[in-house]
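Anyone else keep sequences and structure tokens together like this?

Example one:
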Amino acid sequence: MDLTVCLIKETDGLLQVNPEAIEVLSKISQPVVVVSIVGLLRTGKSYLMNKLAGSQNGFAVG
């Protein structure tokens, strides 16, 4: 599956589960791995996530 989906989104200062993510996850019958990367601005987080996902454009860089 070549899909990147944000699980949590921020709306009006509150964190909420992304309904699109729930829909995607409910259709998966195999094990799922959740990866979270945190860090300072412009330190390569998006680059690393793209490398882990095997994609060049899944997560916006910059």
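And example two:
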Amino acid sequence: MAKIHDTLLSLITGINKWQDNYEKIPDELYKGMLLFIEQTATSKAQPPVDLFHLLQILHRPSREWGISDLQDYYPEDAPLLKEFIGLTPDADEFLNRHISPQDAEQQYMYEILMYCREEGRQLGQEYTRIRTFLSNPQNAVITSFQLSEFAEIFPDLHLTNLIKQCYEEITPVVANYRKCPHCGWTLEYMNNRWRCNKEDICHLLADFESLSSYDFGKERVLRLLPGIQRFVLLPGMSELRIAQHLIRKGYEVELYPNVDEYDLSVSQDGKRIFLDVKDFRDPRTLANFFNHQNFAYLEKYKNQCLIVVPQYRSQLFASYRERSMALLNETAREYIEMIMENEIESTLKKVFL
């Protein structure tokens, strides 16, 4: 099992580096190819004879690669590479889960979390304010002045700098983009259509018939890093939407309690339960996430936290929750209770009886 993990990690890390500089093939990619050949040796699948052949194979669904038990780490229907976008959203999710957060594109969000959690800082309110800002579609693409105006509210210079690093400048190319009608991030025209980041989930959630350009005049324009858009903005939009809905229903809601130990705390009449929003593309990937966790991590969920899947995931996978729950191992199933977003209200009514 460890070799499957190492194979995927080496391939994805290597291809990720190679996409930044095609003049040099990274060592990680060579290592990944050798591990891939070793993993396919016991199957009937033809192993790659060279790097070009490997890349052809990686464009196929992973079930066709000839690696046994691969589905415990990577979705069977998903390729690793896709024409026009390179590494697939599933590959990005794997990288997000399995590499050190310091090496991920969303490292600055992780550093903000760790900084706010440090003993003696008591920066829970600051963290909630930052996370809420980054989860607002209006802040997906902003001017340099707007970012400075927000980031410099905080007297801590290190925190200010970390917030600014969650964005990248797009001023020279902003005219090439359109504004996503769902999340506010940049749409890019690829393969005869406008796409929002790699997964392009926003296409299911908004009308793309009439798109607007950005109009910032001569100001410097910044957008959230792609990793922040995928792993902070999109799930954050769901978290804020759920919080606002529950507040309207009369519940007391706290966002990111105990500096993001959970996503939401929901209280009524002295009772409290926590919610954690998990926004994974594939139900098996969500199940595998919990299957690979240790006892100490799982324990915080038992009888006190509900896992909530954003409703739009069921548009891609029918019976998403049922599929994911069925794929949990025996240990994880003992601790995890999972619901879809549209089941929150009915579930809370039972909890607060």
